[in-house]
Structures are given as structure tokens and as C-alpha cells.
């Protein structure tokens, strides 16, 4: 659907940008344009306030990265000869989901049927589709975070490229909002805490998502201990998905720009992104719109969405909103990207940090210290095998380790430092004195930090 618009006016510099040609509807309901050059127009009517699924505008990458060679992990898991998808996985015929360029099916590992994966198949019938999926693979291989859906491996034949992804037994955040109407502040803070942490991790690796919206956030319900009531409560675990529009920028700065293409979902798109000048700050604007939807249950008004006016908290629908939540929303929805808060700022905001993370699993995890010590003493080949096996973890064990990782990762940057590990295990370690704890942490890091980054990544922690 295309909004009606008046003719452009030269003096009108407060307007949204739309592609210069009428979009065409591709398979999967995705809008694409023949040209990415934006034209300034003034919409006749404000954007709809109702909450509906938003299509993404897709751009074409300038070049496609070359496919990576078969990793040692795949050799350990499947053997040197198994290079085709059907040799490794039993793939269901039923299609579980459809995207802009591909379909998603469920697959089970032949050697271990209890291991379930999601397989995204993207046709190679056009260079555009192939280049987009290769860019997505290049992006996903940079990311290893508990709140980002992991790419485990890829396969390729003459017809398609197959992305074998972590299977998420949950649903879209969009569906959660539709069912509940909106989330209370504590639940919303817990969700955004995880989103901001994952986004901070991405931006530090120069990855910009460019299409953040509730439809691209998967949530899983888990039962946790309610510290206030002494009983049990449900909380939502978050996984960011769909990095098909993500790009790798040349600058690690959160204010860096990605180029001059228009990509994303219009109602979640930052004002500068509508004009083809998006950077990492545009992801934070999208988070602001998403946070508004979480708390209010509807989209901000049209003039707010295009950056013409700030949120008006004097309206009755915002009467129950805390001052801290209002402050965060204003920081995220600043029209000027240079004034907008960063992902690190948002993750450290008092409203975000006030979210409860449930009971501390570290205090009930006796084998934690022994497991780290055992890994440190393992032979190098055994460590490699354990790293491969870590990719197959599912169920309660994966959930427990994920929660431990996020508790130890105090600054939410997606990595565990030596200082964070030392502080977290000091009370549990069977040693005496700060010096002995430090020596123990150093020895563990020498073994666990397999990539030499001086920090423990998520998969290294699972190993």
C-alpha cells in the first residue's frame, strides 16, 4: 500500500522521505523500489495509529561477500565428506515461515535427532537475492550473543543457499503485544534490557540492524523466582532475528552512517533513515518506537514518527508512565541523530537497569567452578570438540548457561571480562584470598578464551 501524497514543495523541509518510484510488492509482502533516491513529500494524512505488521523496504548491497570455507566445527560434527544439507539434517516438508526471499523449515540433526534447528532456504534465482543472503551470512558470523539468534552453519547447492539457525521455540514480540495489549513497565524494561544489550554488542562490532521492530524480536516465556512474592513468575527471553537488511559500517561510532540507501520499515524508521542517511543511531530511534508500542500498545502519532514534533506526555494515555520511562523515550526519539542516546547509554539508563533479572542462578550452580576448571585442564583437541558440542545445547541446560552469562556480563556488552568473572565467582570459588582468585581466573581465561580476545564470548562460555 502506498500513501497518498501532495506534490513536493521546495520550501517544505519538514517532511518524510519515500522512494522516488512506486514500490512493487514482492513475494512475502515486502516492498522494494527500483531506485533508492529519496524524494521529499508531505503526507496528506497522519500515519495510522493502529498496530499492524510493517513491511520492510529492501535495498541492494553494492557487492556480495565471498562464501566462507567449511569450518573446523562442521568437520568435527559431520565429517569431511558431509557437505550437503540432506547429508546432515532431516528437513521437514512443512514450511514454518516465509520471508522476503526465503522459506523456513524445521530440521533435525541426523546424528542427534533431539537437536532441532531452523533452516532458512534462499533461492539463487537472482543476483539480488543471492547477494542479500551472503551479506546476511557475513553479518551473522560476526555475532555471538545470547540475545541474538545464532547462525550455526551454512550449506549451498546449485539452487539455493541454506542458513542453519538456532531454533527458537517462541513467538514474535508483536504477537505478545497484540495478545496483552501492552506490557507493564517491569516487563517492558526486562525486554528492552536485553534488546539494548544485544544492540550495544552489534554496534561495537560495527553491525547495524536497520530493521528493528516487534516482528523481528522473538520472545520465549520462562518461569523464574519472584523475589517479592516468594513464588514464581513468567518473564520473556529475547532473541533478535532477521539481519537481512543489516550492514557492516566502516566506523565503530554509534553515530556513523552506513551509506545513502533507504532500508527498513517505514513506521520504525528514523527521520534521517527516511532520507537515506542512516547510521547506528537509527537503530535507537527504532527502539524508541518499539518501546512506545510496548508501553502504550499503539504507534506514536504521525508527526512524532517523522520527527516533526516530540512526544506530548500531557495526553491522558501517558498519565501512568513513570518519569524515568518518559526520559528514556525522549532520549531515544530525538530527531537529531547526534543528540540521540547510544545503545550503551540506553542499556545503562536507570529505567532499563531497574528491570529484574530473576533469581541468581550462580548461587545454586555448584558445578560452575568445577566445570570451568575442568575445561581449563582439557587437552586442546577436547576443547575444540566441546566447543562444537556447545552448538548443540538445547533446553534447560542452555537456558541455565544463558542466564549465568547474562548475570556475569554486568555491563551488557555481550562479553565477560576477567574482572566480571572474578567478582561473580569470588564468593563461590573454593580458594582463599584475592590473589588466588585472580590466578585462577587468569588460568581459566588462558583456556576458555580460545580466540585470544581477552574476553569470554557466548559460545566460549557454553563450551
Automatic annotation (TrEMBL):
Q: Reaction(s) catalyzed by this protein? A: L-threonyl-[protein] + ATP = O-phospho-L-threonyl-[protein] + ADP + H(+); L-seryl-[protein] + ATP = O-phospho-L-seryl-[protein] + ADP + H(+)
Keyword flag Cell cycle: no
Q: What class of enzyme is it?
A: transferase
Q: Where is this region: Disordered?
A: 1-38
- Give every EF-hand domain span: 396-431, 436-463
Domain Protein kinase per the UniProt entry, residue ranges: 90-352
The reply on keyword Transferase is yes
What's a Pfam family in this record? EF-hand_7
Q: Which UniProt keywords apply?
A: ATP-binding, Calcium, Kinase, Metal-binding, Nucleotide-binding, Repeat, Serine/threonine-protein kinase, Transferase
> Which branch of life, at top level?
Eukaryota
What EC number(s) does this enzyme carry? 2.7.11.1
Polar residues: bias regions: 18-38
State whether it acts alone or in a complex, and with which partners, per the record.
Monomer.
- UniProt-recorded name of the protein: non-specific serine/threonine protein kinase
Species of origin: Alexandrium andersonii
Amino acid at each position: 500500500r502506498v500513501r497518498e501524497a501532495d506534490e513536493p514543495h521546495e520550501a517544505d523541509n519538514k517532511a518524510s522521505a519515500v522512494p522516488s518510484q512506486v514500490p512493487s510488492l514482492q513475494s512475502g509482502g515486502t516492498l522494494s523500489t527500483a531506485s533508492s533516491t529519496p524524494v521529499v513529500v508531505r503526507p496528506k494524512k497522519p500515519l495510522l495509529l493502529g498496530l499492524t505488521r510493517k513491511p520492510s523496504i529492501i535495498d541492494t548491497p553494492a557487492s556480495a561477500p565471498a562464501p566462507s570455507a567449511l569450518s573446523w566445527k562442521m568437520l568435527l560434527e559431520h565429517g569431511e565428506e558431509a557437505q550437503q544439507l540432506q547429508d546432515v539434517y532431516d528437513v521437514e516438508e512443512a514450511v514454518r515461515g516465509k520471508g522476503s526471499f526465503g522459506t523456513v523449515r524445521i530440521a533435525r540433526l541426523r546424528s542427534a535427532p533431539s537437536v532441532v534447528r531452523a533452516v532458512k532456504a534462499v533461492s539463487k534465482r537472482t543476483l539480488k537475492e543471492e547477494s542479500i543472503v551472503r551479506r546476511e551470512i557475513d553479518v551473522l558470523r560476526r555475532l555471538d550473543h545470547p540475545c541474538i539468534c545464532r547462525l550455526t552453519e551454512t550449506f549451498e547447492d546449485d539452487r539455493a543457499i541454506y542458513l542453519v539457525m538456532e531454533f527458537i521455540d517462541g513467538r514474535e514480540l508483536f504477537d505478545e503485544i497484540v495478545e496483552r495489549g501492552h506490557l507493564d513497565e517491569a516487563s517492558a524494561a526486562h525486554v528492552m534490557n536485553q534488546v539494548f544489550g544485544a544492540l550495544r554488542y552489534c554496534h561495537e562490532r560495527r553491525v547495524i540492524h536497520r530493521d528493528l521492530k516487534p516482528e523481528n524480536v522473538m520472545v520465549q516465556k520462562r518461569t523464574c523466582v519472584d523475589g517479592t512474592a516468594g513464588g514464581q513468575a513468567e518473564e520473556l527471553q529475547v532473541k533478535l532475528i532477521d539481519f537481512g537488511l543489516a550492514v557492516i559500517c566502516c566506523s565503530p561510532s554509534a553515530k556513523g552512517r552506513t551509506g545513502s540507501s533507504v532500508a527498513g520499515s517505514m513506521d520504525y524508521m528514523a527521520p534521517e533513515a527516511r532520507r537515506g542517511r542512516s547510521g547506528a543511531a537509527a537503530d535507537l530511534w527504532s527502539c524508541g518506537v518499539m518501546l512506545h508500542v510496548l508501553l502504550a500498545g499503539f504507534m506514536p502519532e504521525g508527526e512524532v514518527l517523522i520527527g516533526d514534533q516530540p512526544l506530548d506526555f500531557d495526553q491522558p494515555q501517558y498519565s501512568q508512565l513513570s518519569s524515568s520511562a518518559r526520559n528514556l523515550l525522549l532520549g531515544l526519539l530525538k530527531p537529531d541523530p547526534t543528540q540521540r542516546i547510544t545503545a550503551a547509554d540506553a542499556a545503562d539508563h536507570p529505567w532499563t537497569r531497574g528491570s529484574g533479572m530473576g533469581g541468581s542462578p550462580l548461587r545454586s550452580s555448584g558445578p560452575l567452578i568445577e566445570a570451568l576448571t575442568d575445561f581449563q585442564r582439557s587437552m586442546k583437541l577436547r576443547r575444540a570438540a566441546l566447543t562444537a558440542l556447545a552448538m548443540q545445547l538445547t533446553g534447560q541446560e542452555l537456558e541455565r548457561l544463558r542466564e549465568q552469562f547474562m548475570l556475569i556480563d554486568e555491563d551488557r556488552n555481550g562479553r565477560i571480562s576477567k574482572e566480571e568473572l572474578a567478582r561473580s565467582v569470588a564468593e563461590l570459588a573454593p580458594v582463599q584470598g584475592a590473589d588466588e582468585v585472580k590466578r585462577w581466573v587468569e588460568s581459566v581465561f588462558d583456556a576458555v578464551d580460545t580466540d585470544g580476545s581477552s574476553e569470554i564470548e557466548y559460545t566460549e562460555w557454553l563450551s
